[in-house]
Design brief:
The protein has helices spanning 15-22, 25-31, 125-151; strands at 2-11, 35-40, 45-54, 57-71, 75-83, 89-102, 105-117. By secondary structure, the chain is an alpha+beta fold.
Length: 152
């Protein structure tokens, strides 16, 4: 079951600072809902453990994340796949684009594509889509708060 989630955040921080934060495992770990660990394997590869609850199913996903198509400080693609045992799997990616609105304000746009399978996919597309949108929204608003607050 595949879905697309799009959004935009206006971040009160310079584009270079937003780019650095998007590549900082500590900041990402703090912003990803349910993230238990996120470790850097290389400049473009990370491993993660995330616990998520979708409807009645709660699962711990072990996954790998890769950064591709890097065009600093303007855009990249983040792709990942996680396995949640009997709960199933989740995989997907997001194209993230940064645009400088002014020297101290950056517009972050994203288009994420996700695909789930296994027991999670049996929950129904409405629940999966709404939960996925909520999680994406939580990540980007938390990211915005962290990067903007760090500016002050």
């Amino acid at each position: 079951m595949a879905m697309i989630i799009e959004g935009e955040e206006r971040i009160e921080a310079p584009i270079g600072k937003v780019w650095a934060a998007l590549n900082d495992p500590d900041i990402l770990r703090e912003c990803i809902p349910g993230c238990e660990s996120l470790e850097k394997k290389s400049d473009t590869e990370l491993v993660a453990v995330v616990t998520l609850k979708m409807g009645p199913i709660k699962a711990k996903f072990n996954g790998e994340v890769e950064l591709k198509n890097l065009k600093p400080p303007h855009s990249y693609t983040i792709q990942g796949e996680g396995k949640g045992g009997v709960a199933g799997f989740a995989k997907g990616g997001a194209d993230v684009v940064l645009e400088e609105e002014s020297p101290d304000v950056t517009i972050l746009r994203y288009e994420a594509k996700a695909d789930v399978g296994g027991k999670i996919a049996q929950l129904g597309s409405r629940l999966i889509t709404s939960t996925s949108k909520k999680l994406a929204g939580q990540f980007f608003s938390s990211f915005n708060e962290k990067v903007s607050a760090a500016e002050a």
